[in-house]
Amino acid sequence: MACFSSVVAAPKVAHETVLSNLDNPWDMAFLPDGTMFFTEKCHGLSVRLPSGKVNKLLGMKDSKGYASTARDLFCEGQAGMQGVAVDPDFSKNRQIYVYSTSDKSASGSNRLMRMKVNSGFSGVSGRTDIIDDVPYKPKATNHPFGGPGAHNGGRVRFGPDGYIYLTTGDTHNGKVPQSPTLLGGKVLRVDRDGKAASGNKPPKGYDKRIYTYGHRNVQGIAFRPGDGTPVVAEHGPWHSDEITVLKNGGNAGWDPRPNVAGRGDCPNGYCGYMPNQMEGVNPMERAKYMPMTDLKTYPDAMRPAWVNKGLSQGTSSAAFLTGKQWGDWNGRLAVGILGIGFGGTPVGHRIDVIELSKDGMSAGEVIPMSLPMASGRFRSVVQGPDGSLYAAVDEGAIFKLTPRS
Question: 87-100: per-residue pLDDT in tens?
Answer without folding.
Answer: 999 999 999 999 99
